[in-house]
Amino acid sequence: MVKDKIMKKICDFQTISKSIEKYNINKFFSKDINSHAELFLFKKGEHICREGESTNYLFFLVKGKAKVYSSLSNGKTLLICFYNSVKMIGDIEFMKLEPANSNIQVLEDSYCIGISIQKVREYLLDDVKFLRFMCESLSEKLKKLSKNSSINLLYPLENRLASYILATGERVNVNGVDVLIFDENLTEIAKLLGTSYRHLLRTLKSLCKSGILKKKSSYFEVVDNSMLTDLAADLYK
């Protein structure tokens, strides 16, 4: 397996303090955590964590977005959900003292505030405010997992693909116009959405025929954002 580039740690206390203040991270704690916090930059495509690997930090995704997916024993992968800021990462692993149970990959350059697991255990296990927030985070994830599991089983690929494109598409300027483009690896997308490569191609072709997408040389351009949004129906939120 190809390893990601190493995440970049931003060793500037003033920048860290400003980030904590900007995203109001201290509201989750009874204590000031500035002296225990670190700031990390994950470049587009890097993983915050990989399934089966140990986690050394409790992260707060404060800027950017990421997709969460799981690897199955039959070699397939399954999309679970998307994360936007502010989202806690590592709470399940922290509570169960286990390696990461899913893969979290950033879809754009993203920033995380991290607190080492050792410091969390040393300073925060008696912080009722923090523990309450962690319970709320776990409850929200359980609710989202239940909903998205039903989506994967019951919704047609067309709807799930529309949601995926809206979540992962990139805004670019084309001839002075802001457009959303989709240019991810289709083989990987087919795996994530639990479908065949052929069925994915047929669905993309159907969306193009409906005037929702337009095929370019190496990517798809969203032509009708309104129709795509209607198809997505707030899936994978």
TrEMBL record:
Domain HTH crp-type as annotated: residue spans: 155-226
A molecular function GO annotation: DNA binding
InterPro entries registered for this protein in UniProt: cNMP-bd_dom (IPR000595), cNMP-bd_dom_sf (IPR018490), Env_Response_Regulators (IPR050397), HTH_CRP (IPR012318), RmlC-like_jellyroll (IPR014710), WH-like_DNA-bd_sf (IPR036388), WH_DNA-bd_sf (IPR036390)
Keywords per UniProt: DNA-binding, Transcription, Transcription regulation
One GO term describing the cellular component: cytosol
Sequence ranges assigned to domain Cyclic nucleotide-binding in this UniProt record: 42-141
Keyword DNA-binding tagged: yes
Protein name: Transcriptional regulator YeiL
Organism: Clostridium tertium
Lineage: Bacteria, Bacillati, Bacillota, Clostridia, Eubacteriales
